[in-house]
Amino acid sequence: MLRSAHVSRPFEYYETWPAAFEGALAATGLVRADEVEESAYAFEYGELQMVDYPEVASFDRFRASRDGLTFWPCHYLGGTDILTHNAEIRAFDCPVTGRRLHAIPPADPDVVVIHAVAADERGNVVVPPRRLLPQSLDVTMAGAADTVIVTVESVVSRGDLRRHSRWVEIPSYRVAMVVHAPWGAHPCPVLGRYRGDDAHFREYVAASTTPDAFAGYLQTYVTGPRDHWSYLDLLGAERLTRLQEIGTW
User: Fold this and answer.
1) Per-residue pLDDT for 188 more than 60?
2) What are φ and ψ of residue 117, in 5° steps?
3) Distance between CA 96 and CA 83 in Å, rounded?
């Protein structure tokens, strides 16, 4: 989670997995709080503050928002020091059992941006059944915000979508915009389409050691390319082809 101190209203940024690019956003100077390790050097230099939530509790925050709840009950924080570092989590007694629980505040995101395998031009989004927790969380997050933007590997016809209608997990009425962005998750993987780019992650980790090195990384991969297609040209067809898997779309 990232919170900006440079805008007129509170701004928070969440990324599901891998949590690779909060550091890139943090290095731009737009944010002041982060719960991930990639921005460790920013903490060291006093540029960021840390806000702690356990991983599962972070997911539960979006479930609370999706269900319209003011908090999500949590029973597994005993024995940790999370409560010492996060005053937003409140203890309470269960009104039914009397058991001591903790209330996790909802995430309440204004905008959610997710990447998916495919969608049609109306915004019906396909999430194949072969998935991991991050893909399931994408569906939860899509139900947690009023504005949902989906980048996709492929924009498919309505006819193609009808043949796989059982895979439509995010209906069009939840989606504000669909953006065609092949390889849009790079260097992260998309199940059934391409693997994660381990070489790029090693480059990212090496660049994260100092602010100057990271500024060079941002110039090369983030601020330098004119657009998404320029970014793909920078990576090159040979590199991308080596990452491909046999997909369903």
Assistant:
1) yes
2) -70, -45
3) 23
Length of the chain, please? Answer: 249
What integer pLDDT is reported at residue 12 of this predicted model? 54
Q: What is the pLDDT of residues 25-74, one digit of tens each?
A: 555 555 544 444 445 656 666 666 677 888 888 899 999 999 999 999 99
For 168, residues 6+ apart whose C-beta sits below 8 A from its C-beta are: 124, 125, 126, 127, 161
- Burial class of residue 79 in the structure, from the number of CB atoms within 10 Å of its CB (0-12 exposed, 13-18 middle, 19+ buried): exposed
Quick one: which of 85, 96, 21 has its CA closest to 57? 85
Q: Indicate the residue type of 24.
A: A
Neighbours of 198 (CB within 10 A): 10
Identify the residue whose tokens are 């709080």. 33
| Most confident by average pLDDT, 125-134, 160-169, 194-203 | 194-203
Q: For a pLDDT cut of 90, what percent of the chain falls above it?
A: 56
Judge whether 222 and 25 are in contact, CB under 8 Å.
no
Closest CA to 247 of 142, 118, 149: 118
**Integer Cα distance of 116 and 142 in angstroms:** 11
Structure token digits, residue 190: 């998309």
- And the tokens for 175? 């989606």
The domain limits of the chain are 2-50, 55-104, 111-180, 198-243
Quote the CA–CA distance of 98 and 89 in Å, as a whole number.
Answer: 18
Identity of the amino acid at 10: P
Looking at residue 106, its amino acid is P
Helix 211-218 vs helix 198-207: crossing angle, to nearest 10: 140
pTM, 2 dp: 0.80
Residue 195 falls in which region: left (phi positive, over 0), alpha (psi -120 to 50) or beta: beta
What H or E segment, with its residue span, contains residue 240?
helix 237-243
